[in-house]
């Protein structure tokens, strides 16, 4: 039975080669047939796992996190596959190889350029949503978490087990563990506890041969690569083992906003001399937007200092008084709460039950483009005024700059300890974001144009040689792999910006674990042999 199925496939594959291109409908049928055959004799139920464009659920599975208008997607996936078992993933790899189809792996679907659910060549989506179990070991202070879990689910589960254990990772609860942790993972505790990837102590990865490896069997090279270099170039990450961190039972939050009428520009300028040096327990994140002034009705800049202190308010106030008195923080601005409540607070959820952290699908988001930069010298006041002009060009709230302070424990890692190189010497990271609702082509172009102009305006004030970029804020403007030509030279243009010299070691690991470049996308690490 098995071997006749394979013979059939081989014949079929030969046929495809002879005919050159087959229609995508045919391709779809063949992939479906291949998978169905692979599932035969197991207790897998294809109707719970495989979704074709004819299934009602296909559409809703596809659109969870569109960053771009769908009209700009070159192709739709042949199938969306939501496996429950490892052997189903092995079958997907098998059929992809046989039919020359690409796989995009999706955990939470938040990729900034949609690389987990779009492609320019025929592809299937391997959606890991059903791999989402979490087991917390409070004695060891560790947790195994499967990649399809969201950060919200992870935080919720840890908090159910303990009041003083936590994990350091991103702010948005619907972000997926798979993409986030393999790409770094910065959050409100990162000055004290560094990145999510810095607390991975073991992992389960399926390689190109369908073998499941743990830290010991994959070796330290691959284990290094998936802690900041992303997963998508190397295999399919199934789970991470995390070292949990210890937090106080009460933390303090505040979100103080000042407009230009209340000296916002000077405060932002001053913040740059404070944010990376202040007490590690304190993270003062800064959001900048153009809003209508309540004073004169014209547009003004609103600076929000959105902050977490890992301790009580009576310890926080003297620190602020000594290091950043200009902000004028008072006790009334501050709220003490548990760490898990602070997760809701920073997610912008007020007075709801913790269960909202288990929602995987946020309301459909508007279209979006983001970019990032690293700042090593304070930006002068006149340049800040130039940024304000860019923000005023856009409708209120649609454009936002986020400044995330570094320093603290982030600086105590060497640049090559993990693939994430943005360590000592960085004051903060800037995230530029623009959101819009209209799917039209001219809207897309004008928003892209705006953010690219801003990015080019910023060049003199940010890191250089390379101009560093955070990998989890993926940006295809930096360069892409042309299909059929993933050259090392071409990839190093963007690779050095994300990873600096760690890029070379990532290429080395890729060459070792996936020399045929089976796991690839527009910005995946190329193997050396393909040069
Ligand atoms: C609203 C929003 C808020 C964010 N907030 C933060 C934040 O506070 N801090 C921060 O650091 N980042 C933040 N990010 C960025 C986020 O960390 C990245 O977009 C991350 O890659 C998303 O992971 P995901 O699993 O949701 O995405 P996906 O789109 O599923 O995956 C992202 C990439 O990883 C690959 N991948 C996913 N799962 C696997 C797997 N199991 N094995 C191999 N490869 C895999 C995908 O193929 C894709 O290339 C935010 C993003 C958004 C959209
Ligand atoms: C604004 O901040 C600057 C720098 O801290 C300070 O010199 C100035 O007096 C402040 N102005 C007002 C109106 O508070
Ligand atoms: C508001 O903006 C208009 C147009 O630029 C300007 O003429 C006016 O003086 C501004 N008003 C205030 C109070 O700043
Ligand atoms: C902080 O305040 C600003 C301005 O009011 C608001 O837009 C933002 O959502 C607030 N952030 C949080 C986390 O509450
Ligand atoms: C949350 O609930 C408390 C108590 O009911 C109330 O005092 C507070 O104003 C509420 N906060 C918000 C933001 O709704
Ligand atoms: C691949 O890209 C490199 C760098 O852009 C270029 O020099 C080379 O000619 C390309 N090779 C092919 C086969 O297109």
From TrEMBL:
It comes from the Eukaryota. Residues 73-247 form the FAD-binding PCMH-type domain. Pathway: Alkaloid biosynthesis. Gene3D superfamilies: 3.30.465.10, 3.40.462.20, Uridine Diphospho-n-acetylenolpyruvylglucosamine Reductase, domain 2 (3.30.43.10). Residues 1-24 form the signal peptide. Keywords: Alkaloid metabolism, FAD, Flavoprotein, Glycoprotein, Oxidoreductase, Signal. Its cofactor is FAD. Pfam families: BBE, FAD_binding_4. Coiled coil: none annotated. GO terms for molecular function: FAD binding; oxidoreductase activity. InterPro entries: BBE, FAD-bd_PCMH, FAD-bd_PCMH-like_sf, FAD-bd_PCMH_sub1, FAD-bd_PCMH_sub2, Oxid_FAD_bind_N, Oxy_OxRdtase_FAD_BS. SUPFAM superfamilies: FAD-binding/transporter-associated domain-like. Belongs to the oxygen-dependent FAD-linked oxidoreductase family. This is Berberine bridge enzyme-like 18. It comes from Sesamum alatum. The lineage of its organism: Eukaryota, Viridiplantae, Streptophyta, Embryophyta, Tracheophyta.
């Amino acid at each position: 039975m098995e071997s006749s199925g394979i013979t059939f496939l081989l014949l079929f594959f030969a046929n495809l080669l002879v005919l050159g291109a087959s229609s995508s409908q045919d391709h779809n049928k063949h992939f479906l047939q291949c998978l169905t055959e692979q599932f035969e004799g197991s207790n897998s139920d294809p109707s719970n796992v495989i979704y074709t464009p004819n299934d009602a659920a296909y559409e809703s599975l596809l659109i969870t996190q569109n960053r771009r208008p769908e009209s700009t997607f070159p192709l739709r996936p042949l199938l969306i596959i939501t496996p429950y078992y490892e052997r189903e993933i092995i079958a997907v790899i098998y059929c992809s190889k046989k039919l020359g189809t690409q796989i995009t792996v999706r955990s939470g679907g938040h990729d900034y350029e949609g690389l987990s659910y779009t492609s320019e060549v025929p592809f299937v989506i391997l959606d890991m949503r059903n791999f989402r179990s979490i087991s917390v070991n409070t004695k060891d202070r560790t947790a195994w978490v499967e990649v399809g879990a969201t950060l919200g689910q992870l935080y919720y589960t840890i908090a159910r087990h303990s009041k003083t254990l936590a994990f350091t990772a991103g702010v948005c609860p619907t972000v997926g563990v798979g993409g986030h942790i393999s790409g770094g993972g910065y959050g409100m505790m990162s000055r004290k506890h560094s990145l999510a990837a810095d607390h991975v102590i073991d992992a389960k990865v399926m390689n190109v041969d369908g073998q499941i490896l743990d830290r010991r069997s994959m070796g330290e090279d691959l284990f290094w690569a998936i802690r900041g270099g992303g997963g998508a170039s190397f295999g399919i990450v199934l789970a991470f083992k995390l070292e949990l961190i210890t937090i106080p039972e009460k933390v303090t939050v505040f979100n103080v906003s000042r407009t230009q009428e209340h000296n916002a520009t000077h405060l932002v300028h001053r913040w740059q001399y404070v944010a990376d040096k202040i007490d590690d327990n304190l993270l003062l994140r800064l959001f900048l937007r153009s809003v209508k002034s309540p004073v004169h009705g014209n547009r003004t800049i609103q600076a929000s200092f959105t902050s977490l202190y890992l301790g009580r308010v009576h310890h926080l106030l003297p620190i602020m008084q000594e290091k950043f008195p200009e902000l004028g923080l008072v006790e009334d601005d501050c709220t003490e709460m548990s760490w898990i409540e602070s997760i809701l607070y920073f997610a912008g959820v007020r007075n709801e039950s913790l269960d909202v952290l288990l929602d995987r699908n946020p309301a459909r988001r508007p279209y979006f483009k983001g970019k990032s930069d690293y700042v090593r010298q304070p930006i002068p006041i006149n340049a800040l005024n130039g940024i304000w002009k860019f923000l005023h060009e856009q409708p209120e709230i649609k454009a936002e700059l986020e400044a995330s302070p570094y320093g603290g424990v982030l600086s105590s890692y060497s640049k090559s300890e993990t693939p994430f190189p943005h360590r000592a010497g960085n004051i903060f990271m800037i995230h530029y974001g623009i959101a819009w609702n209209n799917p039209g082509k001219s809207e897309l172009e004008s928003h892209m144009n705006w953010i690219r102009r801003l990015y080019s305006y910023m060049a003199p004030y940010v890191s250089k040689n390379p101009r560093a970029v955070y990998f989890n804020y993926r940006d295809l403007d930096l360069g892409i792999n042309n299909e059929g030509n993933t050259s090392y030279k071409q990839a190093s243009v963007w690779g050095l910006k994300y990873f600096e010299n760690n890029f070379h070691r990532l290429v080395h690991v890729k060459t070792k674990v996936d020399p045929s470049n089976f796991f690839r996308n527009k910005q995946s690490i190329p193997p050396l042999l393909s040069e």
